[in-house]
From TrEMBL:
InterPro entries: HTH_LacI, LacI/GalR-like_sensor, Lambda_DNA-bd_dom_sf, Peripla_BP_I. This is LacI family DNA-binding transcriptional regulator. GO terms for molecular function: DNA-binding transcription factor activity; transcription cis-regulatory region binding. Residues 4-58 form the HTH lacI-type domain. The keyword Transcription applies.
C-alpha cells in the first residue's frame, strides 16, 4: 500500500507543508475551512502520522500512558477503543497498563509510564486509591494528566465522567414510578467518586418522591466474585424486604441477577432489578436487564482529545474542568410493570 506524506497533502491542496502540519495538529492559527480540507484530503489519501519520525523532531515521545483498573471490564475496553482512535489519528502511541484494582499496582504503573517518557497520562483510579500523592508527583514534573470515570476532585486536573448523578436519579425514579418503594442499592467502595455520585442520585430520587432514605438498604462491596449472594441474603431477610435492587456496576448487576435466580425470586414479579452498566449483553440476559448505559467510547475519546490538547497547546488548551457526558436509561424486562405495580405506580404519581 502506498504511503502518503504531509508533502503529498500539501501538493494536492497547493498549500505549504507547515500549514498542513498545523492543520493536522488542530492549531488555532489555521482557519476551520482549511482544517476541513486538510482532514478530508488526509482521509482520502489514507494518510497516517509516523509517531517515530515526529518524536525525532523534539523531546516528545509521541506516546501517552493509559492506566485502567481492568481491561477485561467492558466499560474500560470500550473507553480504550475511544482513546486509541483519537491517539492514532493525532499521531500518538498508546501504552496501556492495568492496576487490577490495586493502589500499589497503580503506583507502579505510573512509575513505569514515567520511565517510558510518556507525554501525558490518562487514568481511571483503582478501587483502593484514596491518596493521589503519586499523581501530584507527575504533575510536579509538568506531565499533564486527565482523569476519567473514577476521578479525584482534589487533584485539580481535567476530568471526563458520565453523568453518574443523573443516571442514578433516572434509574431510581423509574423504579419508583414502576411502583417500587423499598429499593436496595448495591454499590462499591464509598470513597470512589462514582459511588458517591450514584448514591447521591439515588437519594435525590427518593427525596423527590417522598420516600425515606434507609441506610439498611445500602450495601458496599469490593470486586470479589462471591460477595453479592450474602448481600442479597441480608437484604431479603429485612422486614419489610426490598422490592427492587439498583446496582451501581455491571459486575454487581450480573451477580445480583444470579443470586436472585438461585434464591427462586422471580424478576420482576417478586423484585425488580436495574443496573448502571455498559454491559453489551444486557438484552440477552433472562430477563433482559434494564440499565443506565455509560457512553464509554465517547468518554475515552473526549479524555484523549483533552489530554493531547494539553500536551500540544499547553496554556492555550481548554481550562481545567469536569466534562460530563450524558447517560441513557434503557428499560427492559427486569423492571417490567406487574399488574400490582401498575396500580401502586399510578397511586404514587397522583
Amino acid at each position: 500500500m502506498e504511503t502518503f506524506t504531509i508533502k503529498d497533502i500539501a501538493r494536492e491542496l497547493n498549500i505549504s507543508t507547515s500549514t498542513v502540519s498545523r492543520a493536522l495538529r488542530g492549531s488555532y492559527e489555521i482557519n476551520p475551512e482549511t482544517k476541513r480540507l486538510v482532514m478530508e484530503c488526509a482521509e482520502r489519501l489514507n494518510y497516517r502520522p509516523n509517531p517515530i519520525a515526529l518524536s525525532l523532531k523534539g523531546s516528545a515521545s509521541r506516546a501517552i500512558g493509559v492506566i485502567v483498573p481492568q481491561i477485561a471490564n467492558y466499560f474500560f475496553s470500550q473507553a480504550i477503543n475511544g482513546i486509541e482512535a483519537i491517539a492514532y489519528n493525532r499521531g500518538y502511541h498508546v501504552i496501556i497498563f492495568q492496576s487490577q484494582e490495586s493502589y500499589e499496582r497503580e503506583t507502579a504503573n505510573v512509575h513505569q509510564a514515567m520511565s517510558r517518557k510518556v507525554d501525558g497520562l490518562l487514568i481511571s483510579l483503582s478501587s483502593e486509591t484514596s491518596d493521589v500523592a503519586h499523581l501530584r508527583d507527575v504533575l510536579d514534573k509538568h506531565v499533564p494528566i486527565v482523569l476519567f470515570d473514577r476521578v479525584a476532585a482534589e487533584l485539580g486536573v481535567t476530568q471526563v465522567v458520565a453523568d453518574n448523578f443523573g443516571g442514578a436519579f433516572a434509574a431510581t425514579e423509574h423504579l419508583i414510578q414502576s411502583g417500587r418503594r423499598r429499593i436496595a442499592h448495591l454499590t462499591i467502595q464509598p470513597w470512589l467518586s462514582i459511588t458517591q455520585e450514584r448514591l447521591a442520585g439515588y437519594r435525590a430520587a427518593l427525596e423527590k418522591h417522598g420516600l425515606e432514605y434507609d441506610e439498611t438498604l445500602i450495601r458496599y462491596g469490593t470486586f470479589g466474585p462471591d460477595e453479592v449472594g450474602p448481600m442479597v441474603d441480608e437484604l431479603m431477610a429485612l422486614d419489610p424486604m426490598p422490592d427492587a435492587f439498583f446496582t451501581a456496576s455491571d459486575r454487581l448487576a450480573v451477580g445480583c441477577l444470579k443470586a436472585l435466580h438461585q434464591r427462586n425470586l422471580a424478576i420482576p414479579d417478586d423484585v425488580s432489578l436495574i443496573g448502571f452498566t455498559n454491559l453489551n449483553v444486557a438484552d440477552l440476559l433472562s430477563p433482559s436487564l434494564s440499565t443506565v448505559v455509560q457512553p464509554a467510547q465517547e468518554i475515552g475519546q473526549v479524555a484523549a482529545e483533552r489530554l493531547i490538547d494539553l500536551i500540544e497547546f499547553k496554556h492555550r488548551a481548554k481550562p481545567v474542568g469536569t466534562v460530563k457526558i450524558p447517560t441513557e436509561l434503557i428499560v427492559r424486562d427486569s423492571t417490567r410493570l406487574t399488574e400490582h405495580a401498575k396500580h401502586a405506580g399510578a397511586a404514587a404519581t397522583k
